[in-house]
Amino acid sequence: MSADTPSALSHTSLPSSRDLKAAMPLSDALQTQIRKQRAAIAEILAGRDDRMLVVVGPCSVHDPVAALDYAQRLASLNQHLSARLLLVMRVYVEKPRTITGWKGLVYDPHLDGSHDMSEGLRQARELMIDIASLGLPVSTELLSPVVTHYLDDILSWAAIGARTTESQVHRELVSGLDFPVGFKNATSGSVQIAADAMQSAAYAHHSFGVDGHGVMSSVLTQGNPHTHLVLRGGDQGPNFDAASVASAQHCLSQSGAPAALMVDCSHANSGKDPARQPDVLAHVVSQRVRGNKALCAVMLESFIEEGKQPITANGLRYGQSVTDGCLGWAHTEQLLRQMATALAASNTELAF
Ligand SMILES: O=C[C@H](O)[C@H](O)COP(=O)(O)O
Ligand SMILES: C=C(OP(=O)(O)O)C(=O)O
Fold first, then answer.
1. Interface pTM (ipTM) of the complex?
2. Per its record, what are the GO molecular function terms (predicted)?
């Protein structure tokens, strides 16, 4: 290896984010829509809009056709429930893995280990534009700061996952974004790490990054005040119950971090069993209706078919997750309708 070659087995050039954005631009109308959707989410998080935010969709996108099919159903439901809920679709194109596994559409869009990452970025951007064009706000988990450059203009909300909330690089990344971001509690269950992250991301940062041309750069970000905690459970179990929520709120207030709370009804809050997500949702809505207004957002993992399937070369079942198990569409629609009705009626006796 020569002295000027970075150490890796290979490097394959990608289009710059500026070039991909120029080839697949957002219309003026879409830019205006996304600006409004970001502001609407920020209003809910600030407690100035009484609706609840619902980030809902597949654990991961592996088939853009099925994801768009799901988005069409969600967009139509969004119109019916918009007095009580703001639905935002999970369009997760990167997956953090506990050890190894398929890492998402942008890494391996053909799901066969060919890792056509250039095509993955193109498909991800195209899909997000198609979904936003249905009128739906788009969200994702930000994992690689490089990938963020290709998609940041389309997003209305993003998560920093449990495995990366403690990372300084991700806190710097959030500091430069002008849309709301949820930091998840750590996989250990630590909420303090997320409270620290929110405070860090609220500051301006000097960091190392790349510009739109892909040129390595010294970057100055402005700080992001629109962050919040996402309770997703941890190694010791769930954290959506009233006592855990109160303890998280105490931690946020002691730290001077923003008070808004989202509960992720999946992951360690459901023991990764999608059938337990409705019970988590019922508990959260009940706490909200009983007066805990800081609980203003939930996350659900949901796709067309319930459950999950392994990735095999023999073909995949349409509309079913290839990562964590999801609720099916029919059940999701029923839950969201019940949630909206319960919020409208201030109904504390929920059984989803
Ligand atoms: O949401 C997805 C998974 O919970 C997360 O990416 C970890 O997945 P893994 O433990 O299957 O690798
Ligand atoms: C990976 C995810 O969540 P967490 O970071 O909570 O494990 C996810 O929401 O897809």
1. 0.97
2. 3-deoxy-7-phosphoheptulonate synthase activity
